[in-house]
Specification:
The complex is a heterodimer of chains A (247) and B (288). Chain A is of the alpha/beta class and 247 residues long. Chain A is 35% helix and 24% strand. In chain A, a hairpin with a 2-residue loop joins strand 4 (57-62) and strand 5. Chain B has a single domain (2-277), classed as ABC transporter involved in vitamin B12 uptake, BtuC (Orthogonal Bundle), CATH 1.10.3470. The chains are: A alpha/beta (247), B mainly alpha (288). Chain A binds chain B through residues 50-52, 71-74, 76-77, 82, 84, 88-93, 97-98, 100-102, 104-108, 110, 114, 136, 150-151, 153-154, and chain B through 164, 167-168, 170-171, 174-175, 177-186, 285, 288.
C-alpha cells in the first residue's frame, strides 16, 4: 500500500488552476524528486499534502486514511513533516528549543525522551554547536539545516523537502545531501522539490515533473529527464548538464 | 520626605497596573488581539465577588478560588468561539468585537448592579497599614497586590520560557503556520493563552475591587493605564510590563505631589515621552 496517495487533486486560486487533477503515489521509504519550472504548482502541492492548502477537488490519503479535512497539526502528528522553501524558524527561541518543540508536539514525546530525541536531531543535522543560539541569528545554511532538523524532529514517516539546497554553495549542498541520505536510510519516505537538478538526480530513485499544474512525467531520473515533454518544459535546456538550471 | 512617599506609593500602584496589564500584553503578543473589553472583564470579576460573598457567606479568599478558574475557563471558551471567529475574518473585526463586548458588559453591569459605587470588603485588612517613618505609610493590601503582581508576572515568565506549553505559546506567537507544521494546534494554544490572560484579569479585577470603589464603567479608565504600562514596558516583555506599570505609577504620584490635578496628566506625559523616544517601549523587542 502506498504511504501517500493523491487522487485527481485540483486547486485553484481564483481563475488560476495551480494543480490540475494531479495523481501521485509515494511508497514507504521512497525518495522521490520533484522538478518543474517556477509556478508549476510544486509548493502548492506540498501545501495540499501538509494541510496548509485546501484542494477544491480530489483526495489526499496518508497511510490509508483520507486526510483532506485534517489541519496541518493533525497531519504532522500522523507523520507528515514539511520544510518551507524560505526557512521559518521561531526566531525568538534557541535552535534547541525550536527542535524540542517539534519533538514534543509533532513527535509526541515528553520530558527526558523529548530532550534526547532533540539532541539526537541536533547531532544528525550538524547543529550541535549552535544549540543555544537564538534561531533568528542563524545564517542561511544554519536556517536551512534547522528547517530540516525541525521537520525531522516531528518524527515523520513522510518528509516533504522544499528546495533545501537553494542558495547554498556546492560544499554546503553536499553536506545537506548527506543529511538527507541519512534520513532516508532510516526508512523515512521523502519527496524533494529542488531546482538544483544535479543534486537530485544523484540521490533520488524516482523523479516527477510538474508543469502548469499537471504531472507531465514520472519515472526513473534518466528516463524523465530525456522525456520530450520535460525537455519542452525546460525550453530545450539540457537540465541534467546544467547544475543551476532555473527556468 | 513627601517625595519619597510619592515614589513608594507609585511603586505599589505600579504593581497593580502591571497585574492589570499583563493579560492585555499576553493577548496582544500571542494572538494580536487588542482586547478593548479587558478592563470591563476585570470589573465583572469584582462584581461576581461582591455578589458571591454575601450570598454564600464564604470568606473572601474563596472568591479567588472560584472566580479565577471560572475566568480561565471562560477565557478559553471565548477565545475558541467568538474571538477565533473574529480573528479568522480580520484583526479589525476583532477590535470591533471586543469593543462591542465592552459596551455590552458595561450596560449589563449597570442594569444589574446600578451605577452606585461599591467595593469588596475584606474585613480589617483593607484599612491596616504600616508606617516606615512619619511620612511614609503603606497599606498592607497594596503591598500584597504588588507581591501578587510580581509572583504572577514571574510565573508567566517561567511558564513561557520553561514549559512545553509555554514554548508552544511563544512559537505560535512567532509564526502560527510554522507552529502548526510541527504539530501545534494553534487554536488550542490561543485558547490556553486566553485562559491565562483571563485568570490574570480576574486577579486584577478582584484586587481593584479591594483597593478602591468601583462602578460599572471603572474598567475603561483603568484599561488606559494598562495600555500605557504595556507600551512603556514594551509589548511582549513580561518584566517590561512591570517596569512600565511602576514608571506610570511613580509618574502619577509625583504629578499628584506637585498638584493633585496633575496625577493623570503626569502619567500621560511620561507615556507620550516614551512613545516619542522609544516607540517600541523601553524593553521592546525589535522584530525582524
Amino acid at each position: 500500500m502506498a504511504l501517500l496517495e493523491l487522487e485527481e487533486v485540483t486547486k485553484r486560486y481564483g481563475q488560476l488552476l495551480v494543480t490540475d487533477r494531479v495523481s501521485l503515489r509515494v511508497d514507504e521509504g521512497a525518495l522521490v524528486g520533484m522538478v518543474g519550472p517556477n509556478g508549476a504548482g510544486k509548493t502548492t502541492l506540498f501545501g495540499i499534502i501538509s494541510g496548509d492548502a485546501r484542494p477544491e477537488g480530489g483526495r489526499v490519503s496518508f497511510d490509508g486514511v483520507t486526510v483532506n479535512r485534517l489541519d496541518p497539526a493533525a497531519r504532522c502528528r500522523m507523520g507528515i513533516g514539511r520544510t518551507y522553501q524560505v526557512p521559518r524558524p521561531f526566531g525568538g527561541m534557541t535552535v534547541f528549543e525550536n527542535i524540542l518543540m517539534a519533538t514534543q508536539q509533532g513527535g509526541r514525546l515528553r520530558g527526558r525522551e523529548s530532550r534526547l530525541a532533540a539532541a539526537s536531531v541536533l547531532g544528525r543535522t550538524g547543529l550541535e554547536g549552535l544549540a543555544n543560539r537564538p534561531a533568528g541569528t542563524l545564517g542561511l545554511l544554519g536556517r536551512k539545516r534547522l528547517e530540516v532538523a525541525r521537520a525531522l524532529a516531528t518524527r515523520p514517516r513522510l518528509l516533504l523537502l522544499d528546495e533545501v539546497a537553494g542558495g547554498l554553495t556546492d560544499p554546503e549542498v553536499a553536506e545537506l545531501m548527506d543529511v538527507v541520505r541519512s534520513i532516508r536510510s532510516e526508512g523515512v519516505a521523502i519527496v524533494w522539490i529542488e531546482h538544483v537538478v544535479r543534486a537530485l538526480i544523484d540521490t533520488v530513485d524516482r523523479l516527477v515533473c510538474l508543469a502548469s499544474g499537471r504531472l507531465v512525467a514520472d519515472g526513473a531520473p534518466a528516463v524523465v529527464l530525456s522525456d520530450p515533454s520535460v525537455r519542452e518544459v525546460y525550453l530545450g535546456t539540457d537540465v541534467a548538464a546544467d547544475p543551476g538550471a532555473r527556468t | 520626605m513627601e517625595w519619597a512617599n510619592a515614589i513608594v506609593q507609585g511603586i505599589v500602584t505600579g504593581g497593580f497596573y502591571a497585574l492589570f496589564a499583563c493579560g492585555l500584553s499576553l493577548m496582544f503578543g500571542v494572538m494580536g488581539i487588542i482586547n478593548l473589553a479587558h478592563g470591563d472583564l476585570a470589573i465583572i470579576a469584582a462584581y461576581v465577588a461582591i455578589a458571591l460573598v454575601p450570598s454564600t457567606h464564604l470568606p473572601m479568599v474563596w472568591a479567588f478560588v472560584v472566580v479565577v478558574p471560572i475566568f480561565a475557563l471562560g477565557g478559553y471558551l471565548l477565545q475558541r468561539t467568538l474571538l477565533q471567529t473574529s480573528l479568522d475574518r480580520s484583526p479589525f473585526t476583532t477590535l470591533l468585537v471586543t469593543f462591542g463586548l465592552s459596551v455590552i458588559i458595561e450596560n449589563v453591569l449597570l442594569e444589574v448592579f446600578s451605577a452606585n459605587g461599591q467595593s469588596i470588603t475584606i474585613g480589617t485588612l483593607i484599612t491596616k497599614s504600616f508606617s516606615v517613618n512619619t511620612t511614609i505609610t503603606i497599606s498592607y493590601l497594596s503591598v500584597i497586590v504588588l507581591a501578587v503582581a510580581i509572583v504572577v508576572l514571574g510565573g508567566i515568565q517561567l511558564f513561557l520560557s520553561r514549559t512545553p506549553t509555554g514554548r508552544q505559546i511563544r512559537a505560535v506567537a512567532d509564526d502560527r503556520e510554522a507552529a502548526q507544521l510541527v504539530g501545534a494546534n494553534y487554536r488550542h494554544v490561543f485558547g490556553i493563552a486566553a485562559a491565562i490572560a483571563f485568570a490574570t484579569v480576574a486577579l486584577a479585577g478582584l484586587s481593584y475591587g479591594m483597593l478602591t470603589e468601583f462602578v460599572p464603567t471603572s474598567g475603561v479608565t483603568t484599561l488606559l493605564f494598562a495600555f500605557e504600562s504595556v507600551v512603556i514596558g514594551g509589548i511582549g516583555n513580561v518584566w517590561g510590563t512591570l517596569v512600565g506599570g511602576v514608571i506610570l505609577g511613580v509618574a502619577q504620584q509625583i504629578g499628584a505631589q506637585i498638584n493633585p490635578a496633575y496625577q493623570i496628566l503626569a502619567g500621560n506625559l511620561v507615556f507620550l515621552a516614551v512613545l516619542a523616544v522609544r516607540p517600541r517601549g523601553l524593553f521592546g523587542v525589535r522584530t525582524a
